[in-house]
Design brief:
By secondary structure, chain A is mostly helical. Helices cover 49% and strands 0% of the residues of chain A. By secondary structure, chain B is mainly alpha-helical. Chain B is 72% helix and 1% strand. In chain B, helix 5 packs antiparallel against helix 14 and helix 6 runs antiparallel to helix 7. The longest helix of chain B is centred in the middle third of the chain and has 39 residues. Chain B is globular. The relative contact order of chain B is 0.18. Classes of the chains: A mainly alpha, B mainly alpha. At the A-B interface, helix 1 and helix 2 of A face helix 5, helix 10, helix 11, helix 13 and helix 14 of B.
């Protein structure tokens, strides 16, 4: 409904900001348990991305 | 030849195959309803709650081909193969913005396909037909690649591939024909149980054998587990373009439309990323295959990475279990895809053009028969065409389906789209996209526009859809100057809330919470 809060939609932009410019994260260090940054950063964003959609949903219901 | 058959693996594989067949056919009795109308056969009566939708859409989008091809790409090309991770991250904000609205209007107006919406929204059967045909053409090679996924694991077990594929096809055809969308939904539960077990065992046990994750990444050739700067633009445009395309695929929309409420769709936008994590873990198997010394095969190339790795690391019985996971993982999406393509035909070709007054009963029958034809086509594809052709075709399918973006998703939010402009944009996107693919001989998905270098080497589909959108905008402005005015074909309320014109459906789910009603 149009009365729904709009500001939580900002959360939906975060995954795009975090991922659309690969030079920010396409490197090996800092490694985590020997896993390159490029790999663990993207895994981290799977969780953060889900949090973004989940939070947006909860704040708008 | 039979001497090379892995009997241990094969027997486990066959037992699971039997279980799948029975489950698929019994699914018809799940909350029994008359399956002779399209909303029941093709959408399971729009009754799936949060849990079943999660399994169904997850099983539908994260396909066996993905489970084979993504690690194969990592195995062959390194870090760029990880694009599947950001791809399946950024898709969910898009889902949350568009799918609840599309679901609601579909529910209120009884749409079974995305093209049903396009027809009403633009008051144009012809535009809907083009969108429907794009969907069918993009889905066919996708089904074929599911069969290919099964072929790869069958070959790994050393059984005669052609004959076994016909058996897999027969199983798929029978349960889809009999039970409609209920079958893949129930099978998705089976599939997930075995696939999660398989993957968790793989990502824990294999690294132990190989000396731990740190050792695996240290042993990789330098630069393998990251991205060269020259690939940045291709990487970002590929995952972004693919994410825009994913929920335009007919099988994705079928999964969404079968949900019971808007709330179910919204919750799943937050819950489905669990599968993205799973897919990421599977992608890592590509790195492990490199370190374990797996060699590409003559027939399947790098696509053997995961099956060969599993074969190398595990006893035969568990390998059979893992191969069955891949095979069942192929049957679920193949079933939904064939249902989705069949629904497009029965709704947007048959009912809109051939028999305008087709009754629901006739629609369902047409869908059932077409779902069979679509699958035979896919099987013939994979058995008699060179596999590279099928893979190229699927690559093109992704570029093509993306061209329906303005018609299906932009139109949810604006009245400012002229139907002829949308049609022209679609034609330009299709034409230019195909031209770029042909020019690089389908050797990849990125195109160096005008030789401008790596910063402008982008995913072809994204270039094509940008051109598409420009044509739609310019065309709409032109139409306005010629006297066309935007008008409301579907009232805003129909996108937003449940209208009482249709009776509420009884839920079909496992979780008591949503079963009590929303």
């Amino acid at each position: 409904m149009s009365t729904r809060r709009r500001w939580p939609l900002v959360f939906l932009l975060l995954p795009f900001v975090a991922l659309l410019y690969p030079p920010w994260y396409a490197h090996v260090s800092p490694t985590l348990w020997g896993i390159p940054f490029f790999v663990w950063y993207q895994f981290l964003w799977v969780i953060l991305g889900a949090a973004c959609t989940g939070l947006t949903y909860l704040l708008r219901e | 030849m039979l001497a090379s058959v892995e009997w241990g693996a094969l027997s486990v594989f066959i037992v699971i195959g039997g279980l799948v067949t029975v489950t698929g056919i019994v699914a018809a009795r799940w909350r029994r309803a008359k399956l002779d109308n399209l909303e029941e056969w093709g959408l399971a009566g729009r009754r799936f709650g949060t849990v079943v939708t999660w399994f169904l859409v997850g099983g539908d989008l994260y396909t066996a081909y993905t489970f084979v091809a993504v690690p194969a790409l990592v195995f062959g090309k390194g870090g760029i193969g990880l694009f599947a991770i950001p791809y399946t991250i950024v898709v969910y904000p898009i889902v949350l913005l568009t799918m609840p609205r599309l679901w609601q209007v579909a529910r209120n107006r009884g749409y079974v396909t995305g093209s049903d919406f396009v027809r009403d929204r633009f008051d144009s059967r012809f535009l809907a037909l083009m969108v429907a045909l794009t969907g069918i053409v993009a889905t066919m090679p996708y089904i074929a690649l599911q069969m290919y996924g099964i072929e790869v694991v069958l070959a790994q077990m050393g059984v005669p591939v052609d004959a076994s594929l016909w058996v897999a096809f027969a199983i798929l055809a029978v349960f889809t024909y009999v039970s409609g969308l209920r079958a893949p939904a129930l099978l998705a539960l089976v599939k997930d149980a075995i696939i999660w077990v398989t993957v968790l065992v793989c990502v824990i046990y294999i690294p132990i054998r190989l000396g731990g994750y740190g050792t695996i990444f240290r042993k990789l050739p330098a630069g393998t587990a990251t991205l060269p700067g020259t690939s940045s633009a291709a990487y970002a445009s590929l995952f972004f373009g693919s994410a825009l395309a994913l929920f335009l695929y007919p099988h994705a929309l079928t999964g969404v439309f079968s949900a019971q409420s808007q709330k179910v769709v919204k919750r799943n936008a937050a819950l489905l990323p669990a599968y993205s994590f799973l897919l990421g873990l599977i992608a890592l198997l590509g790195f492990m295959a490199i370190v374990a010394g797996v060699k590409p095969s003559a027939k399947f190339g790098g696509n053997v990475a995961v099956p060969a790795l599993i074969d190398k690391m595990f006893p035969s019985g568990f390998a059979g279990f893992a191969f069955a996971a891949i095979a069942v993982g192929a049957l679920v999406p193949a079933s939904v895809m064939s249902i989705a393509a069949a629904n497009l035909f029965s709704r947007n070709v048959w009912r809109d053009f051939i028999r305008r007054h087709a009754e629901p009963r006739e629609e369902a029958l047409v869908s059932r028969v077409v779902s069979l034809l679509v699958k035979v086509g896919a099987l013939v594809f994979i058995l008699y065409l060179p596999t590279t052709d099928v893979i190229n075709f699927q690559l093109a399918g992704g570029v093509w389906i993306l061209q329906t973006l303005p018609a299906v998703l932009f139109s949810l939010y604006t009245r400012w789209l002229n139907r002829w402009a949308v049609l022209a944009g679609w034609a330009v996107g299709m034409g230019w996209g195909t031209y770029m693919l042909a020019k690089i001989h389908f050797a990849g998905s990125a195109y160096d526009l005008g030789g401008l270098g790596s910063h402008w080497t982008w995913y072809i589909g994204l270039y094509a859809v940008l051109a598409n959108v420009v044509v739609v905008a310019v065309g709409t402005a032109l139409a306005y100057l010629l006297g066309w005015r935007p008008r409301t074909t579907i009232a805003e309320a129909e996108y937003e809330e449940q209208l009482t014109s249709r009776p509420p459906t009884e839920p079909l789910d496992l979780d008591p919470q949503t079963a009590e009603g929303v």
